[in-house]
Amino acid sequence: MLDLRRLQALAAVVSTGSVKDAAAQLGYTPSAVSQHIAALERDTRTGLLEPAGRGVRPTAAGQLLAEHARALLDRAAEAEAELAALTAGETGRLRMASFATAGAELIPPALARVRDRLPGLDISLRVADPGEALGQLRNGTLDLAVIEAHTTPTDDRGLIYRPLLTDPFRIVLPRRHRLAARRVITLADTAAEPWVDIRCEIGCCRDATTAAFQRAGFTPRRVVEADDYWPAQGFVAAQLGLALIPALALGVQHDGVAVRRLRPASQPERHVLAVTRPASAATAPVQAMLTALAAQAGARPARDASPPRSR
Predict the structure, then answer these.
(1) Dihedral Cα 76, 79, 80, 82, nearest 10 deg
(2) C-alpha angle 107/113/116, rounded to 5°?
(3) DSSP structure string for 108-136
(4) Global confidence as pTM
(5) Is residue 154 within 8 Å of 271, Cβ to Cβ?
(6) In the beta sheet, which residues pair with residue 163?
(7) Which helix or strand (DSSP H or E) is residue 95 part of?
(8) In the chain, which segments carry CATH 1.10.10.10?
(9) What is residue 254's predicted lDDT score, i.e. its pLDDT?
(10) What's the helix, strand, coil split of the chain in %, to 5?
(11) What CATH fold (topology level) applies to the domain 93-161+270-299?
(12) pLDDT of residue 310
């Protein structure tokens, strides 16, 4: 295969008509340029230059090869420029997945920050549960995932986990419920209450709430089922039961509910993590998104609860 540096030397000599001028153009010594031409003639088994007065001119083979050399050098320059843009995150793509209740306070503002910084980056975001997202990371169809977990994984050589925030669950009650006058509620005080069963609460969220009820000493009496956290608020507002909902899923609150803290001993929580592969962790798009997610997690307001209403 022809050496690109030797082709560059030939193109410069043909362009300038002089080994000396070609050397000055390239920043080489005349001897180095002569050596490149000699090596290229050995590679091609043909003469490429011939004397012409005080300079040189190309043979037919030299002219042909110089023309191809210019095209190859242009393509190489384009490749370098495109690679530099890709490495800097100015082009390329970032494929992400997140769990559904990452919420308007975390994912969209972080995406907006990255879009402002890297407007040429193609960003895609899909909703996936943690198991699906981790599988797609491992098989290379995702670059970054935001997942929820009951505990932070500590031993996974195939993936890198970065904690973003701890998301506490809040208790959601009807606005006029007897416990709504309190700012902080002990979960054990709700043992006799009916509860909403939330179907999207699977995996780590179900583990967290189940453990909290066990610590409080009772099994919740679930009387109605909701597909997601927002319909659950509607059932609570209708006084059909209470619900435990993560703070990130309470960006919008139903007018008919009150949201209260739980005492630490009975408060379930989930961890929100950003996960990447080692091969993509240091790339500019992933680093930009990790920085934006961390900044947004740190800036997220502690939107705990609507204050108790006086009666």
Answers:
(1) 160
(2) 140
(3) HHHHHHHHHH-TT-EEEEEE--HHHHHHH
(4) 0.74
(5) no
(6) 273
(7) strand 93-98
(8) 4-87
(9) 95
(10) 45, 25, 30
(11) D-Maltodextrin-Binding Protein; domain 2 (3.40.190)
(12) 41
- Domain spanning 4-87 has what CATH number? 1.10.10.10
Under-50 pLDDT residues of the chain:
303-305, 307, 309-311
DSSP letter at 309 equals P
**CA–CA distance, 253 with 91 (Å, rounded to integer):** 39
From CA 212, how far away is CA 269, in angstroms rounded?
9
Nearest in space to 233 (alpha carbons), one of 305, 178, 173, 302 = 173
Residues of the chain with CATH 3.40.190.10: 93-161+270-299
174 CB neighbour count, 10 Å cutoff: 20
Q: How many CA atoms lie within 13 A of 172 on its CB side?
A: 32
Give 5's strand partners.
Answer: none
Angle between helices 4-16 and 19-26 (to 10 degrees): 120
Please provide the CATH number assigned to the domain covering 165-269: 3.40.190.290
Token representation of residue 286: 């992933």
Of 157, 147, 78, nearest to 107 by C-alpha is: 147
Neighbours of 222 (CB within 10 A): 12
CATH 3.40.190.290: which residues of the chain? 165-269
In eight-state DSSP terms, residue 204 is H
